[in-house]
Amino acid sequence: MTMIQPRAHSRKKIAGLYLVTDRALCGNRGLEEVVSLAVQGGAACVQLREKDLPTRPFVEEAKRLKALLSPLRVPLIINDRLDVALAAEADGVHIGQEDMPCDIARRLLGPNAVIGLSVETWEDVEAAELMDVDYLGVSPVFATPTKTDTKAPWGLEGLTRIRAYSSHPLVAIGGISRDNAADVILAGADCAAVVSAICAASDPRMAAADIQAEISWALKKKQRNKQHLIHP
Ligand SMILES: Cc1ncc(COP(=O)(O)OP(=O)(O)O)c(N)n1
Ligand SMILES: Cc1nc(C(=O)O)sc1CCOP(=O)(O)O
Ligand SMILES: [Mg+2]
């Protein structure tokens, strides 16, 4: 008799287009409107990234986004702040190399939480191999004016090298737009994280849809290439 093993956890999968918010770039349209339009355009995951908001408005914003995204089954990830993730019952947290250690985040958030970790150096990539994380944020793939306190960009070659080594899903971030989204997927990313090309776009829904179309095309092409390798 075949025994069906229960899954150890039921974390949401992170794939496709990943929106990272920037309140200032959303302008007077408001953050929730831009998030809503981006999801209509195809964003499959949203990270609330607030670098200047005090804790209480941060929690309130996170709860509003959770209420907006939950019925659409789009995961909400909180940048940096475990306490905000817990307070808003978000789906997970994104952690940088200077943020809360991943093992502590896992212990506090539990087995079903999505935990993403930025990797900035090859040492970070090696160390992450033993960690219980759900994806690596490849930080940054290209230089970007949206975040300037980064290490040297990995480039497409660096991304491909990480793909060959790491067993974790990869989220590419930094300088991604419709013009290079397919390139980062073909170079090894499972997911492309985007800030300005959506938040600052005059039509965030269309911007997200255009980037998502590039990602879908590249994911399908990758899948076809893989099948061709198995059944030449
Ligand atoms: C998907 C994703 N990847 C990387 C980052 C960067 O995180 P971090 O290095 O902690 O920098 P800040 O975003 O906190 O400034 C990210 N946020 N998301
Ligand atoms: C939030 C963030 N993290 C980065 C990293 O390299 O870790 S780059 C970045 C901002 C990416 O913005 P844009 O899509 O406008 O280039
Ligand atoms: Mg951080």
From TrEMBL:
User: From what superkingdom does this record's organism come?
Assistant: Bacteria
According to the record, cofactor stoichiometry and binding are noted as: Binds 1 Mg(2+) ion per subunit.
What gene does the UniProt entry assign to this protein? Answer: thiE
MF annotations from Gene Ontology: magnesium ion binding; thiamine-phosphate diphosphorylase activity
Q: What is this protein called?
A: Thiamine-phosphate synthase
Residues binding Mg(2+), per UniProt: 80, 99
Which pathway does this polypeptide act in? Cofactor biosynthesis; thiamine diphosphate biosynthesis; thiamine phosphate from 4-amino-2-methyl-5-diphosphomethylpyrimidine and 4-methyl-5-(2-phosphoethyl)-thiazole: step 1/1
Query: Which Gene3D superfamilies has this protein been placed in?
Result: Aldolase class I
User: What would be one Gene Ontology cellular-component term for the protein?
Assistant: cytoplasm
Family, similarity comment:
Belongs to the thiamine-phosphate synthase family.
What are the residue boundaries of the Thiamine phosphate synthase/TenI domain, all occurrences included?
A: 17-198
Please name the NCBIfam families in this protein's record. thiE
